[in-house]
Each structure stands twice: as C-alpha cells, then as structure tokens.
Amino acid sequence: MNEIRNGDVLMLGAFIDTRRPMAAAYEIVRQQKHGLILLAQCSLAEDILVGAGCAEAWRGCYTGIATFGLSPATLRKTEAGQFFPDEIGHIDIILGAMAAMVGSPFVATRATLGSDVLNDQMDRNKILLEKAGNKGMIPQKKFELIEDPFFNEGTIKLLPAMPADVAIIHTQMAGEKGTARISGSLAFDHYFIHAARTVIVTTEQIVPEEYLRRDPNRNQIPCTAVDMVVEIPWGGHPSQVMGFYDTDIEFIRDYVASARTEEKFKEWADKWIWGVKSRDQYLDKLGASRLESLRAAGPLGYRSRTGK
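Below the sequence we write its predicted structure tokens.
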C-alpha cells in the first residue's frame, strides 16, 4: 500500500459487509498509515482503520456493521474526540462521486434539504480540510444553498464533487491489465474508480484480458481506470464475496465485541493483523474447515443456511 500516503482521502469499495477490500485494510494497518480521511461509509473495513489509528475523519452516509449495530471503534473514537465524522446523505455520495467522475465541481440537488445534514453544528468540513494531506480533495464548503434560477422551484443545494486520492475495490475477477468484473451490488465502485486519482483493484482471481473481453457488457471497471491489480483469494474475508464465499458471521461478531474497548481491539489486531506475517498464514489461522463452510454453493452464489 505504498500508493497510499498519510493524509490521503481514501475510498474503500462495496458496502457494509459485502465485497469489502479487507486484505487491503489489514495491510494499511500494518504499514501504519495515519491521518486518512475516509469516504462513503464507516463500516467493517473502515472501522478497523479507525480503531488502529489510521483514519482521523470521514465523510459519508453510513456508520454501522449491519445487524451488529454502530461501528464500535468509530463510535468509541468519536466519543473520545479522536475521530471526526461528517454526515451527508446516501444520494449525496452517489451524486458527489458522479460529479467527480465527469469533472464537474458540484451538482445541484434537493437531497437532504430539511435534515441535520445541513445543520451548521454538525458541519466538519473545516476539520476535514485541515487534516487532508492534499487540500484539493476537500471542498471549501460542505454545501451551498441557492434559489433555483431556471424553474423558480425554491431552494436547491449545490453539493461539491467527492474526489479521492485512492480508491481500493475488491472484485470477483480481473484481467492482468486491470479490467474487472463485479457480481452482485456495484455499490459506488463504478463511480469512484473514475473519481479517484489512484485506483487499486484487489481480486479473487486474475484471468486473461481476452477472456473478459469476450463478454464486455459484464465488465464494470475498465483497465484504463486502474493503476494496480492484485490477486488476493479470500481478500474480502470476513465479508461476503458473491459467487465465492459467504459472510463469516462469527468472525465479525468476535470483532465487534473486541472493538468496543481499546484493550480488546489491540488484542484482536495482534491476533489477526500484527501476528500474521502473510495472507497464507491468515488463511491457515482461519482453518480449511472454516473456509470450506463459507464457500459459495454452486449456482447459488452463496452458502445456503443448511450448509448443503
């Protein structure tokens, strides 16, 4: 992860506990990056970065780990004044990423009007701007309100673009030049790959580019947008990667319980990050039987609850 600099604005792909770039998140912790500003969400992968002290701020729309509730390390660090969240709307993420993708400095929307997203007391834009290593990644204002100059339909919010220094996307399949194919939800990935200055694709398997180009309509990430592709089988564990393996609920439950305190988080990180010298050692520690119990069953694309 030498492509990631301290103070970078970082977007980790997919959503919550599905197709997350977990192996990349672990490596960021090992390299002791710090001062990162996160985009889009503070869920499983991001919470680990927050707990490890790698990330200091966030702009996004979701802070939680699905049925396990609020992201524990993020909550703990926020309450202690060590982490600074800046909330925006779900649609704001999409619109901001799309604006950055097409090179527009902002987009007009009515999304979140009347909500606390516009509350001055919850505006952390100055903090994000102060902490960003590259000030050009953070707008001078969180938003601007104007009156509709075209149809006279009232107040409109001008939402700034959301560029990123680095986006890391985990995919099911990628070519050796970076063309990538995603199964299941795309989340915001197909926008942020064009909104980030550097794009890293981690993937379950690398295949010949020629194979992917036989059916180009199924490819969501073009090689021209990718700077690096890395093959990492089980690189999304403990999140789900459709067609390959299901969510490791027990692993996530253990993490959530551990991340509620600084001491327990460090114990968890010592076991699963600092105490693991390679990806193979990580998989060995999980064990073959555990991994097999998560492997997707045939055409279902996931592991059935009966285990058959």
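The first helix runs from residue 22 to 30.
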